[in-house]
Write a structure and sequence with these properties.
By secondary structure, the protein is an alpha+beta fold. It has 4 helices and 14 strands. It has a single domain, classed as 3-Layer(aba) Sandwich (Aminopeptidase), CATH 3.40.630.
Length: 262
C-alpha cells in the first residue's frame, strides 16, 4: 500500500487470475453519492487544487465464504484507465482474514486531495461492521510507487495514520511491508475538511442556490445593459447637441467677422 497517488495493498494469497475469474471481480457500482473536494492551497508538487465534485460509486456482495466491497471514484468529463480510483476490500470468512485490493494498487486521480484516506477509511468502517476481530493480510510496499524520500514519508504517514505498521527490511529503506494485527486496530477517520459527502437534499439545495444566484446575476446584467444602452442614447443626443452648438457658434462668429469688416 502506498500514499499520495498510489496505494499498493498486498501481494496476497488470492492471485490476480483467480480474482478476475470470480463472479464479483467485474461488478460495477450500484449506489452513488456526491463528494465535494474542498479548494486547497497550490501544492508545489501537484499544482493547483481548486474546488471539485466527484462521484463515489459503491457495490458490495456477501456469501457464507466471502464478502466484498468495491469503491470507485468517477471524475466528471474525464475518463481514466481501468482499475484507477478503485479500492476493494475482500473478507475471507473461512480464514477469518481481510485483504485490501486491487493487487495492482490503488492509483488516485486527482492526487493529493485526501481521496486515499477517504477510501481506506470507508473500507475500514465497512469491515469493522462485518469482521472487526478478523486478521488483516499484509503486503509489500514497492519502491517504484515511492521512489523518493518525500514520497516514502508521505506514504508511511498515510498508512500509520490509518493504523497500519510499516517495517523496512534493509538499511536503505528500499524494501518495506505493511501490516495490521486485526481490523479493529485500523482507523476509519479521514480529512473531512478536504473530502465531504454531499447528501441528496444538500446537493439539491446547492443547485437551487446556484440557480437563484445565476438568475440574480442575469437580472443585474440585464439592468446594466439597459443602463449602458440608455447612456449610449444620451451620449448620442449630447454629441448631436454639441455639434449643433459648435456649428452655430462658428456660423455666428463668421457672421460677426463679416459684419465688422463690411
Amino acid at each position: 500500500m502506498t500514499t499520495a497517488n498510489t496505494v499498493q495493498p498486498t501481494d496476497g494469497a488470492t492471485t490476480e487470475p483467480e480474482e478476475k475469474a470470480h463472479p464479483w471481480a467485474e461488478l460495477g457500482a450500484e449506489h452513488f453519492r456526491l463528494l465535494r473536494l474542498a479548494a486547497l492551497p497550490i501544492d508545489r508538487h501537484t499544482g493547483a487544487r481548486p474546488l471539485r465534485f466527484v462521484q463515489l460509486g459503491r457495490v458490495e456482495r456477501h456469501s457464507p465464504q466471502l464478502s466484498m466491497l468495491r469503491l470507485t471514484i468517477t471524475l466528471p468529463d474525464q475518463a481514466v484507465r481501468k482499475h484507477i480510483n478503485s479500492l476493494e476490500v475482500w473478507i475471507d470468512h473461512r480464514a477469518r482474514e481481510l485483504r485490501f485490493g486491487p493487487d495492482k494498487g490503488l492509483h488516485l486521480e486527482p492526487i493529493n486531495r485526501g481521496l486515499g484516506r477517504f477510501l481506506v477509511a470507508q473500507g475500514v468502517a465497512w469491515a469493522k461492521q462485518h469482521c472487526a476481530h478478523y486478521l488483516v493480510e499484509g503486503g509489500a510496499l514497492h519502491i517504484k510507487y515511492a521512489p523518493t524520500d518525500d514520497a516514502r514519508a508521505r506514504r508511511d504517514h498515510f498508512l500509520q495514520t490509518q493504523g497500519f505498521t510499516i517495517e523496512y527490511q534493509d538499511p536503505l529503506q528500499l524494501k518495506a511491508s505493511y501490516s495490521a494485527a486485526r481490523v479493529s486496530v485500523l482507523h476509519s477517520d479521514w480529512h473531512s475538511e478536504k473530502v465531504q459527502i454531499v447528501e441528496t437534499l444538500e446537493a439539491a439545495t446547492m443547485l437551487q442556490r446556484a440557480d437563484q444566484a445565476l438568475s440574480e446575476q442575469e437580472t443585474k446584467l440585464r439592468k446594466m445593459e439597459e443602463r449602458a444602452a440608455q447612456y449610449k442614447r444620451e451620449d448620442g443626443s449630447l454629441r448631436f447637441t454639441i455639434a449643433c452648438l459648435v456649428t452655430f457658434s462658428v456660423f455666428q462668429a463668421g457672421l460677426l467677422i463679416w459684419i465688422a469688416t463690411h
